[in-house]
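Structure (tokenized):
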């Protein structure tokens, strides 16, 4: 009995290869791994948190083994890498553990200015705030969360002006 015709044999051999090629073509998101190497998982930062004033106060640089956080414009930054500026006894330690938006805008460490409230700031102070927020905090320090005040109104109702997709360093699919 004669075997399959040469063309038939070729088709049988190509089917598994064609299936593999089709699978690879349809799944471009599959990581390419070299022989003997496991694919690396995608890198992600820590999840973004929502901080109440009480929770944020725990990260004011007093505890040696705790990170140091501060908020500007309702965005909580991890300023631990700037410990010489923000740690216990450092020149800007008064800004940590709270939302110090007004103090940053006015370049003030006066306790009365260490608040989120921007009422009455001049156009120049608001511009300074935006500049420092972008060129110092967003550029140098990781964002670890937002203050509850940024997302919620005083009565606890949702702030309808809050748009997650407009927040700095925010990826809606990763965070919520």
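Design, position by position:
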């Amino acid at each position: 009995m004669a075997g399959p015709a040469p063309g038939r044999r070729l088709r049988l051999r190509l089917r598994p290869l064609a299936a593999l090629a089709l699978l690879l073509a349809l799944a471009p998101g599959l990581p390419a791994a070299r022989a003997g190497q496991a694919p690396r998982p995608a890198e992600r930062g820590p999840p973004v948190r929502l901080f109440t004033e009480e929770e944020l106060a725990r990260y004011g640089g007093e505890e040696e083994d705790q990170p140091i956080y501060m908020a500007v414009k309702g965005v909580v930054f991890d300023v631990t890498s700037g410990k010489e500026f923000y740690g216990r006894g450092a020149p800007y330690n008064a800004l940590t553990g709270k939302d110090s938006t007004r103090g940053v805008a006015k370049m003030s460490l006066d306790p009365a200015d260490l608040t989120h409230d921007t009422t009455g700031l001049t156009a120049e102070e608001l511009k300074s705030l935006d500049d420092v927020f972008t060129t110092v905090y967003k550029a140098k320090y990781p964002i670890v969360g937002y203050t509850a005040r940024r997302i919620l109104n005083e009565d606890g109702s949702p702030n309808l002006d809050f748009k997650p997709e407009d927040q700095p360093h925010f990826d809606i699919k990763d965070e919520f």
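Reviewer-requested clarification: The helical segments are 6-26, 53-57, 83-86, 101-106, 123-140, 148-151, 172-175. The two ends are 66 Å apart (CA to CA).
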